[in-house]
Design goal:
alpha/beta, six-stranded parallel sheet, globular
């Protein structure tokens, strides 16, 4: 999961008709993956549209908060799941879907709890607010089996510091699809931002 792209686009869509153009722009820019957050009314339908019309992109559902939501995302065509946190029930619910997933962690105890559940790849969220790259660097030695996708407050400028860490496989980036760029339907700009992010490998 963590080795597909260096930057996982974290996307919030307010309009269903933007789903397919955004996905195609990301693919054209060299990032064939998308974490579509389930924060809006159109999110599940947008997920379904991307899964159907842009099969070349690895489409996932983010902001999974409950086992029921995990099942809904899978049924809509999600190929992976991402949660901001990880309770025992949520971990079990995501495991039940049979999909790969990144449970959210922010503390050492949470990381250990996820490892105890047999999961070694996880999200680190909110990354910048929780200590950023220095925090993750300090975890590499005592908890070497945990690998992360840090997300939250990361920018194109700060991403390389995370990607240089041995326990980071990719970062989550919302800067690839700014709200004003989506509102303007500037898909060329999305493609350019994706191409720049793909070069961060």
């Amino acid at each position: 999961m963590l080795d597909v792209v260096p930057v996982m686009p974290v996307v919030v869509l307010e309009r269903l008709e933007h789903a397919v153009p955004v996905a195609r722009a990301l693919v054209a820019g060299g990032l064939p993956a998308i974490e579509l957050t389930l924060r809006t009314e159109v999110a599940l339908e947008a997920l379904r549209a991307i899964a159907t019309e842009v099969p070349e992109i690895l489409v996932g559902a983010g902001t999974i908060l409950s086992p029921a939501q995990a099942q809904e995302a899978r049924d809509a065509g999600a190929r992976f799941l991402v949660s901001p946190g990880a309770t025992p029930a949520l971990l079990a619910g995501m495991l039940d879907t049979g999909l790969p997933f990144l449970p959210g962690t922010a503390t050492v105890s949470e990381v250990l709890a996820v490892l105890e559940a047999g999961v070694t790849e996880m999200k680190f969220f909110p990354a910048e607010a929780s200590g950023g790259a220095p925090y993750l660097k300090s975890l590499a030695s005592p908890v070497p089996t945990a690998r992360f996708c840090p997300t939250g407050g990361i920018t194109a400028a700060s991403a390389p510091a995370y990607l240089a860490l041995p326990n980071v496989g990719c970062v989550g980036g919302s800067w690839l699809t700014p709200a004003d760029v989506l509102a303007a339907e500037d898909w060329g700009r999305v493609e350019t931002l994706a191409r720049e992010a793909a070069a961060l490998r």
